[in-house]
Every structure is written in structure tokens, then in C-alpha cells.
Amino acid sequence: MTSLFREFRLAVDNFNIWSYLSASDVKNKFRRSKLGVIWPVIHQLAFSLGAGMIWAAVFHLKPEDFIPFLTIGFAIWGFISGSMMEGCSSFVVAHGYLKQLPLPQSIFIFRTVFTQVIYLAIGMATALGVLIYFGKLHPLGLLYAIPGILLLLGYSYGAIGTLAYLGLRYRDLQHGLAGIFSLLFVVTPVIYPAEVLIKKGLSFAIYMNPFSSLIEIVRVPVLTGGFANETHYIIAGAFALVLAVLRFFFGSRWGRYVPFWS
After folding, report:
1. Where is the chain membrane-spanning (predicted)?
2. Is pLDDT above 70 for 211?
């Protein structure tokens, strides 16, 4: 617990550093682009509208119900997978700072977390626009989604913190995760309702998959104006806690080697 408080105290003390680095990462990604951060919005809308029309017919659902469902799921999934994938390179891309400056390693973890939060904010703003267009926005749903969003942020911190050390130690990990998340995208109810699996007797694929819970604790409140199933909150919270514990475990074990491995 002491390590956790110290971590967040360092984060607050160094907010100006990691927030600047994060904003620079986003800015550099779209440097010299005419549309800039509008591109993620275009990609999300193109996927959600195009795929939504097709899969709505496949699952016998109304497009006006399914497209908002898909848009929110796609935004959250981008945050979930991005936290894992980009977490692997948190220390790798910061090797210049790590080798030359005595900065806390948590700065580069929060740098990646904040970058992913920026993209999540863009994705959720796009999703809310789609909900408003289709008349599916529940104002109270945004309040009910706050606990889920907090758990999602806790997951991101734990995932990025853990993968920062593992990805630095094992450079092939990021490439392996790319294949794993391609499969997880299919088995996680991102592009189809969870009820599709439940009706086919495959509910274990939902409750044994913590990524499903991370999606449901945000998507269900926004779409329905109420809380998701309490089981999803328990699973998501436990998953975030395990990742946070692993982050401090690897940090205490490998932290002193980071400048040499980077």
C-alpha cells in the first residue's frame, strides 16, 4: 500500500512531465496530417457504420440499436488492447530519458496511460455523438458509467505498468500479443451482444474473459441508464488489482535493470 501511495505521489509531483510527453506523442503521431486527430474519428465511424449495418442483419438486430452498441464497444476495446500493446514499449521508447536522466520510472507508465486516455476520450466522444444521433443516449447512464470507467483506468495502469517491464525484458512479447488480441477481438463481445454466446450455452466465454467485463461495465450503463451485472464489476476489479500487484512485483524485481535493458 505504501508503494501505491508513493507511486501516485510521484505521478502528481511529475504531472507536468508525463502529461507533456503524452500530448507530444499524440501530436507527433499526426504531425503534418491535414485532419490530425479527426482520423481516429473517421476510422471509428467507418467501421461502426459499415460493419454495424452488415452485422445487424446477421444478428437480426435493428441498426439504430446495434450501431451505437458497436461504436461504444469499439472505443473501449481500442483502449483495452492499446493499453496492453503500447504498454510493452513504454520503457523501450523512453530509452533516451532512462539512460541519461534520474527520472522515476512511473513517469513513463503514466505517460502511456494518459496517451491511451486521450484516445479513449476521442473514441467515447465519437460514440456519444452516435448515441445522440440515434436518440439512444441515457443522460444518467454517464453517471452510472463512472465506476466502470474508474475500473477501466485502474486496469490500464496495471496493464501498462506490468507490460512495461515484461515488454522491455522480452522484446518479442508485443508481437505475440498482437496475435493474441486478434483472437480475443473475436471471442470478446465487442462486435456482438453477450446474449449471443449466452443463448448458445457459451456464457463461460464471457465470465472467464475479464476483457468482456471491462467492456460491459462501461457500455451497459451508457446504453441502458443502469448498472451492469455486479459480477462484471467484481471480475474487472479483481483483474485490475492483480495487474497492479504484478506491476509492483516486476518493478521491485527488475526496476534497477531498466536503464541497462532499455
Report:
1. 37-60, 66-93, 113-135, 141-168, 175-194, 231-250
2. yes
